[in-house]
Amino acid sequence: MNFYRWMMSKHLRTEAPVGDLARDMKGDKDFPHDGNLDEILEYLESKGACFGCMDACMEAWKQYERESHRAKTGSGS
Prior knowledge:
- The protein is mainly alpha-helical.
- It has helices spanning 3-11, 17-27, 37-46, 51-73.
- It has one domain: DNA polymerase, domain 1.
- The mean pLDDT is 94.
């Protein structure tokens, strides 16, 4: 699962900055759905994203990578 799909499934209804980011991602037809972290951060910066948005993205990416790693290894911890 890519980051975009993960954000839609995990945070679309979250009442926190990461939820705001997920909703912005959904509403942006040009968002790089298959982008890596650097591409996504560059895109957000090009759109004038605030520090809070960038920080939410970086924290969400860390969580995404942890969960993706667990899914690949079959580890529940």
